[in-house]
Specification:
Length: 541
């Protein structure tokens, strides 16, 4: 069965698993595939030829009544591009192209038999691919004829109307022969020039329609077919969605506060899915986001959206697992095959959890190192004796730490210590020092002051002060007071404050607390059987 062929500049529909056929432009050949650029998003991808379809011929079949802005923009852009430079990717002659001249050529008879012309033209077809274009046709304009159009034009065009020929890549002989045989079998008579492409192209397109559902592929192949905006399928766990629901309820209780907070960063992907196992054993995915990109004015609106999305996804999963598969046929809401097994998904989710916890532990270790250096510096620069050289080394280590404002708010004493060191001179009046020793100490003390200035300058870069602050330390102490008051309002324990890695009311802090609680519960459950066995009376053991 004949497959369509495309060239650079053609405008097409490109099918990607989990998405409606999307308007795109061929930008390069890539072996048996094509590189395309998607209209409406500007993203690029590598698409197999069986997942590409002529735009004009399939517009009515593929266009859907979606309200997504990028989808609507894609159709506006591709139609504008076709109007400007052609290259619509349709086998049917375009009335705007120079090939439309063919429709005006008179026929010597009302019926033209293809059977009589196939053998005569085989030699010609093996040597070249014919293209017709007028002298005024723009360079970018698509003017290539398909094989069926060549067969038609060579039968009906007189020598006066002989089209110009553009050399093209030679086709394999066997494929040419096969295409010719298909044409002869499918249609023996052609009544007019305009009817030839429609009759001859109908069956090959029907063949493609039968194969329209994208074949189930491995994870590697899924990544090869780029999505219109983001090729990556991001797996979201049930636990993560439950956390979002809890956070949404928490935010609703303090609406006025979160309405004033800007949206916190999240890892968002258009292809975020909740995995669910289908009756066939294949792992599908419930799409979380119907609209893209996500835009919200404040943290409250975003949290409420996340809560709603999580509830809908979890409810849909319950329905699918109970046998209701109506959702699975909707490509707008469901990815039929995410290319991963249940075990791979489990390992991926576990790896993500481990990564997050590892990052949190690493951050707490940095904070602990910051506190440790504070103590070491103070020990180096005592009132009885001092070792400024060692203190300089510790200050350099402190400056190299990737600390943040939360670390500093939790440990105000560190900022106070560095602030005082900017004026450090030592207790030289009480120390009995020779002139040489005093000169050397004064030189080292100056370096201590310089290093302290460097660290303090980094504090200023890290901490965002209130607008009405008159000095850094004054503004910072005000922030610390607010920080402590918030922790008290939230009834946070010393342990919770100790492991805090973000602002107390932040989404990250809330999620961290849920994760810590979950981890503790799991640990308790694992220990319960052992402890329970020890406590059972002998008669019941």
């Amino acid at each position: 069965m004949k497959k369509p062929s495309f060239k650079v500049g053609d405008k097409v529909f490109a099918k990607v698993k989990g998405y409606p056929p999307w308007p795109a432009k061929i930008i390069a050949e890539n072996g048996k595939k094509y590189n395309v650029e998607f209209y409406g998003t500007g993203e690029t991808g590598v698409i197999k030829i069986e997942d590409l379809f002529y735009f004009k011929k399939n517009k009515q079949k593929f266009q859907r009544p979606l309200k997504r802005k990028d989808y609507l923009d894609a159709f506006d852009q591709i139609e504008e591009a076709i109007a400007e430079d052609g290259g619509d990717g349709d086998e049917t002659p375009n009335v705007n192209d120079s090939t439309s001249d063919m429709s005006s050529v008179s026929l010597n008879s009302s019926t033209v038999s293809l059977n009589t012309s196939v053998k005569e033209k085989k030699g010609v077809k093996r040597e070249r691919t014919a293209s017709t274009k007028s002298e005024a046709t723009p360079v970018k304009k698509s003017s290539r004829l398909t094989r069926s159009e060549e067969a038609k034009s060579e039968d009906v065009v007189t020598e006066e109307k002989e089209p110009s020929v553009t050399p093209a890549k030679k086709s394999p002989k066997s494929r040419v022969k096969k295409d010719k045989e298909i044409k002869v079998d499918e249609s023996s008579n052609v009544e007019t020039n305009e009817s030839v492409p429609e009759e001859l192209d109908q069956k090959p397109d029907n063949g493609n329609e039968e194969n329209e559902p994208v074949k189930q592929e491995t994870g590697k192949n899924v990544l090869e077919n780029s999505a219109p905006v983001d090729v990556k399928i991001e797996i979201v766990s049930d636990q993560h969605l439950k956390y979002n629901i809890s956070y949404g309820k928490h935010v609703k209780e303090m609406k006025s506060i979160y309405k004033e907070r800007s949206v916190e960063p999240r890892e968002d992907y258009i292809r975020q899915v909740l995995p669910v196992q289908l009756p066939s054993g294949i792992m599908g995915g419930i799409k979380l986001h119907a609209d893209w990109p996500l835009k919200f004015d404040n943290e409250y609106d975003r949290a409420v959206y996340d809560e709603s999305v999580a509830q809908n996804a979890l409810e849909a999963k319950v329905k699918i697992l109970s046998g209701d598969t109506s959702l699975t046929s909707d490509a707008e809401k469901f990815v039929s095959d995410i290319g991963l097994s249940a075990e791979e998904i489990k390992q991926q989710s576990l790896a993500k959890d481990v990564k997050l916890r590892t990052a949190r532990v690493a951050r707490l270790k940095q904070e602990a190192e910051l506190v440790s250096l504070d103590g070491k510096i103070k020990n180096c620069l005592g009132l009885d004796k001092a070792d400024p050289k060692e203190a300089i080394g510790y200050l350099e280590e402190m400056n190299a730490i990737d600390f943040d404002d939360v670390m500093l708010k939790k440990h105000l004493h560190i900022v106070e210590m560095v602030r005082r060191l900017r004026k450090y001179v030592g207790n030289t009046k009480e120390w009995k020092m020779t002139d040489d020793s005093l000169t050397e100490f004064s030189s080292q003390a100056e370096k201590v002051r310089s290093k302290a200035e460097d660290v303090y300058a980094k504090f200023k870069k890290v901490v965002k002060l209130p607008e009405n602050s008159t000095s850094f330390f004054e503004g910072f102490t005000e922030l610390v007071s607010q920080f402590r008051a918030t922790c008290k309002e939230m009834d946070m324990s010393e342990t919770e404050i100790f492991v805090l890695c973000a602002e107390p009311r932040s989404r990250q802090a809330f999620m961290d607390r849920l994760d810590e609680k979950e981890t503790q519960e799991i640990s308790t459950e694992e220990e319960a059987p052992i402890n329970g066995a020890e406590e059972l009376p002998a008669g019941r053991s």
